[in-house]
Design goal:
alpha/beta; Metallo-beta-lactamase, Chain A; Rossmann fold; 7-stranded mixed sheet; about 20% strand; globular; binds zinc ion
């Protein structure tokens, strides 16, 4: 086997690794770069190989930084199968269409406002997204599947989002495990990460390789405190959240807090057409749920809907929230405050010290979410300066990524046979200490991957 690292090497976005085996070429993930707009656009338009030289793609999960460039690959000539979990396929239907729609609208906006300049082309179109969706091939967990050449894939629940997989690849000589993104024990809705069978090599994410998270069990109490304090000030709670996974988890926790009368039953709005579609996908895949969420279903309750909760698809309905009085909660995308309706809610609410902005996930470098998390007092929203007076809080307890100790625990079943670990999907301040911790804990060499690095394994 030969590995070439290209995306998510030395950073957390653009996940993409090339694997050559038995004369065939496979891509592990094909994700989008995010961050500084111009820089990300340039990276997204660059493929370090011929798209039509790729025989198949193996997709770990639906997050856009892992799946978002698949339609660009197809636009450039890829026609092979894309192997992934059935729930991931359904999520990609919602997410890749949503991304195509945003890219087409952004390009149309720029072209309308700059009629004298060379028209910009979207990274990919809805047509490309539709052609991509036709290439998906479902592979269930723990089902060894031949995928061409002499390679077999088997996937395991990574406990990160619905349908997320860690993938084990075997060619008869070498076994390579690819972690995708590794979740954490105890997260709401989804099951805990499954242990992997022995492997010779491991490609592992390292998003939080340099730190420890507060325990997930503290999420409910922290959420209760933040919401209660905001309401006591007469403010609103604005929650930027990823439409996939995080929104559904927050809805479930708020449902639980209101059921237990730990919070007053105030109105909650999930304001994101994508979150609405994705919540329908969640409802269609109860086989991916943990015991607690299954119990909701068995009791005849909808874990993702209750009386005080309104899902908003329509833009006009979304705008009406600006005029609403009294305390309420808005959950809206995107989670890193880079795009989407959350920007309107932030613009309207960030200047009022009664309000709270609750960040709920990883905030990549150079995103608006990261600036808020870092305590910047003036930020730019829609190109205009906005003074931050609202309280900024972070709910790191819900992080969908394992921290350093959880990653070390997760990889433990692999260690008796493991020859080397390649760390991806982490900024250097996370990957480097994790590499050192792997070496000191297990005596196994861990290498921090860099773009273009080639490894014969
Ligand atoms: Zn992810």
């Amino acid at each position: 086997m030969r590995l070439t690292f290209s995306g998510a090497a030395g950073c957390v976005t653009g996940s993409q690794h090339l694997l050559e085996s038995g004369g065939k070429r496979f891509l592990l993930d094909c994700g989008m770069f995010q961050g500084r707009r111009k820089e990300a656009e340039k990276k997204n338009k660059t493929l370090p190989f011929d798209a039509n030289s790729i025989d198949a793609v193996l997709l770990s999960h639906a997050h856009i930084d892992h799946s978002g460039r698949l339609p660009f690959l197809v636009k450039n000539g890829f026609r092979g199968p894309i192997y992934t979990n059935p729930a991931t396929i359904d999520l990609c239907h919602a997410m890749l269409r949503d991304t195509a729609h945003i890219l087409e609208s952004d390009a149309a906006f720029v072209n309308k406002h700059h009629p004298d300049e060379e028209p910009v082309e979207p990274l990919f179109t809805m047509q490309d997204a539709e052609e991509t969706l036709a290439l998906f091939q479902p592979v269930r967990y723990r089902t060894p599947t031949p995928i061409g050449g002499n390679l077999t894939m088997e996937s395991f629940d990574a406990g990160h989002i619905l349908g997320s997989s860690a993938i084990v690849l075997r060619d008869g000589h070498t076994t390579l495990a690819f972690s995708g993104d590794v979740g954490r024990p105890g997260l709401p809705i989804i099951r805990d990460p499954e242990p992997l069978p022995p492997a010779d090599y491991l490609i592992m994410e390292s998003t939080y390789g340099g730190r420890r998270h507060p325990r997930e069990s503290e999420a409910l109490g922290k959420l209760e405190t933040v919401v209660s304090e905001t309401f006591a000030r007469g403010g609103r709670l604005i929650v930027p959240a990823f439409a996939v996974g995080r929104t559904q988890q927050l809805v479930l926790l708020l449902h639980q807090l209101m059921n237990e009368r730990r919070l007053p039953a105030v109105p909650i709005y999930v304001d994101s057409p994508l979150a609405v579609n994705v919540t329908d996908v969640f409802r269609a895949h109860p086989e991916c749920f943990d015991e607690e969420t299954r119990r909701y279903l068995e009791n005849g309750e909808d874990p993702f809907g209750f009386r005080r909760l309104t899902y908003i698809r329509d833009a006009a309905e979304s705008k009406k929230l600006n005029d609403l009085r009294g305390p309420f909660i808005v959950i809206s995308a995107s989670g890193m405050c880079e795009a989407g309706r959350i920007l309107h809610h932030l613009r309207h609410n960030i200047g009022d010290p009664k309000n709270t902005v609750l960040l709920t996930g990883y905030q990549a470098e150079n995103t608006l979410g990261r600036k808020l998390a870092d305590g910047m007092k003036t930020v730019r929203i829609f190109g205009l300066p906005a003074i931050v007076r609202a309280r900024i809080e972070s709910l790191d307890e819900l992080s969908g990524h394992a921290d350093s100790e959880e990653l070390l625990n997760w990889m433990k079943p692999l260690t008796p046979t493991l020859k080397r670990v390649f760390l991806v999907h982490g900024e250097p301040q996370s990957s480097t200490p994790l590499a050192a911790a792997i070496h000191s804990t297990y005596g196994i060499e861990a290498v921090v991957a860099s773009p273009g690095r080639i490894e014969e394994i």
